[in-house]
Amino acid sequence: MQLLQMLQRLIATGLAVRLVWLVRRRALLTAPRSPCEYVAPSSGERFPLAKPRWCGGKDDKGEPVPLMLTPLAGITRRQILKGTRSLWRYAASFPLECAEPITLGEGCTPLIPKQLDGATVHFKCEWFNPTCSFKDRGTTVMLSLLRQQGVTEVLEDSSGNGGASVACYAAAGGLKATIMAPDSTSPAKTVQMSAHSASVELIPGSRQATADAAVAAHGRGDGALFYASHNWHPFFLQGTKTLAYELWEDLGFKAPDNIIIPTGAGSNILGCDIGFSELLRAGEIKQLPRLFCAQPLACSPIASAFLEAVGQEDGKQAPSEWNVPEKTMAEGTSIARPIRLAECVSALRACKGGAVRVTEEQMAAATLECAQLGLYTEPTCAQAAAAYHELLASGAIDKSQTTVVVLTSTGIKATPRLASLIGVHL
To answer: What is the pTM of this model?
Structure first.
C-alpha cells in the first residue's frame, strides 16, 4: 500500500513538473516581443513584418534592395527553453512567435576542444545539422516563419548546401520547393534536392545568371512561388544568429574572445553580429567577441573590402577578377558579389575583428591537418583553421584567449577534392 502511494505521489509530481514546464514554455513563447520591422540599410526605409517580402523594392538602377530587421532586445538565460534540444530553445529571441516550427533537431552541435599550435582551440562542428551544414539554422527559421505567414511554395537558387537545406525543410514542412542551379552543376549536388521531391531547374550560364533567373521567377504561378533565398531573406539571419546564442551557452554563458568564420555571403558573420549584439543589449555579456572572416584569396570580396577599409596590407596579391584564372577549391564560399558586403565589413569593424585571405596551399594543408585531428571537413571550412594559424602568428589573437573555429560542413560533401589532396583516384 505504501509503495502504491509513493508511486502515485511520484506520478503526480512528474505531471506537475511537466505542467509547470509547459506553462513556462508557453509564457516565454507568447511574451510580448520588441516591435520589429524590415529595414533597408541603404535608405532606412521600413516595412511591416506582417507581409512576406524578400527585398525592399528596386533601387534607381533597377536592382533589388536587400533587407535586414530592426534590432531586437535579445533574451536572457532564463528565457531559454531548456527542455527543447534544438535551436528553437532560443525561440523567444525570434521576431515572431511560431507555434509549429519546421524542425528536425537542428542546432545543439558539438563544440570540440583541440590542441593547435600549442593552444586550445574550440571547433564548432556544424555538420551535425540534419543536412550536414550550418544552412539548416537559417532554413528552419526562415521557412517556419514564412509558412506561418501563408507561404506554400518556395524558390531557392543554389547548387550546394543552401539548396539541399531548403529542399529538405520544405519537404518536412509540407511546402513545394523549386531549386534553380547552373546547368554546369554536378548531378551529385542535386541528388539530395531531388530526393526531397524538389523541382530542380538547371539554368544555362553563370551562377549570376541563375540568381537573376530566380529573382525573375518570384511570384510565378499566379503569385504562389515565393523567393525564399538564404542569401536574401533576413529571416535566414535570425536562424544563423543562434550560433551566437549557442556558443554563449556552450561556454558557460560567456562569449569567446575570438570567432573565426569561413565566409561566402557572410550569413554567419552577420548572424554572430546580430546574436552577440542582442546578448550585449540583454546584459548577458560585457563585450562583443572579435569576429574574423576567412575567405579564399582567389575570391575574397568581403575580406578584401575590410582590409581596404582599415588600411591593412597582408602582402598577398588578389586576382583582378575573382576566380580568374583559377577557381578556388573553397566552392562553398566562392561568392563574387555578396549582397550584404557593406553590412559584413561594418560588423567586423564594430567588434574590432579582422579578415584573412587564405591561399589554396594554406587551405589544402589545413584540410589535411583537421583530418588528422579527427575533424573531417571540406576545404571551404578548413580555411578557418588556416586563418587561425595566420592570426596567431601575426599576434592578432593570443594563445591564452578563448578562440572558436567554425567548421560549417563535412568533408563527405567534397569527396573528390579530398581524394585529390591525398592522391587517391576515385
So the answer is: 0.91
